[in-house]
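Appendix B. Raw example, untouched.
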Amino acid sequence: MKALIKVGYGCNDHCTFCHTLEVRHIDGTAAEVSRKIARARALGHTMVVLSGGEPTIRPELVRWAGEVAALGMDFGLVTNGRLLSYPDVVAQLLARRLRYVYLSLHGGSATIHNRLVRTDAFAQSYGALAELSGRGLDLKVNCVVTLQNVDHLRELVDALRPYPDVTLKFSMVEPKGGGKALFASLMPRVADAAAKVVDAIDYGLAQAPAQRFAHGGFPLCLMPGHEARYADLRTDQYWSMTEIGEPDFFPVDDRNKLQPDEKCRDCALRGGCPGLYRGYHEAFGAAELRPRTGGLRANSFNYTFEAKVRTSPDDARCPIERVGPAPWDRGRHLFVANGPHVARFRADTRDFSDEEIVAIKHDREQLYLDVSDKPAPDDFATDLVKLMRSPRCAGCTAHDGCTGLYGPAADEVFERDDALVRDWLGALRGDVLDVGCGAGGRYDAILAPLVARGAIRYVGVEPDLGHAEVIARTRPWIELRRSTLEELGTVERFDHVLALRSWNHFADRQDALGKLVALCRPGGVLTIVDNVAFGLVRTRAQSARAEAGPARFEHYRNDDVDAVLPLAAAMGLERLALHPVTRTSSNQWAVRYRTPRVASASA
């Protein structure tokens, strides 16, 4: 777990795209850096990484490395590498637990690199690799892709081939500092730059299949075949960082990027994708994006146990306030209080974006303690305990920015919310079609007696052949159709059509709703029930078991009922009942509609 400390913004290079162009005159004091090194240790970090500007030009460099090592942490650098071309400097840092180097190199020749850094630096920066390679370091080379080097990326791939322990990362230039001031001269179109990066990686792998590559700042939809090579601060295990003058650490974030809703809302790659830099989007829009629709997504993610939080019975302060709220990620960190005990958890998932995680945690409060020993919970009422924001948080001045304190809810939310659905099903009469009836038999105790009494005729649709086989063997009262919704004909109509936890399994929400309506008789009733995404709070063993288990991605989306409402309104459906997800409810939503009593001309 890395902590990034900026030591100052001065530098012996003069990069055209420098993020800190406007503040190069500012340096932190040695005392400030030393204090933050100690704070990193207190927060539980295992590595301190110094950055700038250029940290190696500071005379305190070796001393700071020694302070980090003395506190039992590893040491790392984000650097242009020029000082690391000197063997004695590298030797001193290795003796002080240097384990990680993120080195800037923007071309495979002096001509290209020096043009971008605007000084004669290539020989030293490239020469540092000879001193660092083979030392067992986590060694990365970062190339910022601009208009000046975008056509020369293969040269850098060739230049790094002698160093097989180096990971070469291509990063899209950020419109910040020099990247903003020289935007027109530096900024390539993102689709063109991404294509050149893909070409360079493919070229490198063809020459040396073991060569290591990564990329950052490029939307994943523009990196076909290399989506898993995406890297950023989080994938590199940075948890928090601090700039000069900031009083404490703050979580790393992606607020400089966005995922335009008109392109990214239903993209299967959304969770782990950086999207576009905001400044780029302002200039060029999102037309270059190529969203991947039709892919499957997870419907939950893990908050995994990190540590117990020490509490004192005579200290009335909130345990987060005692440590300090600033360093904790509002979405990805979670503090859970159970009586006098407090534990800290963290979500490192790439299946959900930061924006989605914050909405799940804070807007909907859909967090659940896993009390089962199963790889995946299959009986939510028994396996899960809902967590809610602690009453202690009410009125706190830090409430809206803090990660928050959570505790078990008193209510059995799943049983309470599902009672509504059970009431609806118990009142069914006539011909009933259940699309995606599943093998579980959750409502058999209600439906089977209705069939036996002749109150309903029940037709179940199940596309999964394994589930269909189980249904045919164990539930003979069901008229089974082995089909997807899309394959199902509409000649036969029904008084009631049910989509119980199958809505998010339909590839296209608008087409699916149209088909469900077409399966209803005029004036028939359509019932849709499904779940929003949720966070599971687990021990390390539970998370490991779940991630190694047989659970598979089955959902195209994690829609809330809000995704259904405008589509239904446009079709002229009469809403009979609505049960949305709220902070005090389970993650289950439900809605019922009556279809038009006169069949449409196209029906």
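End of appendix B.
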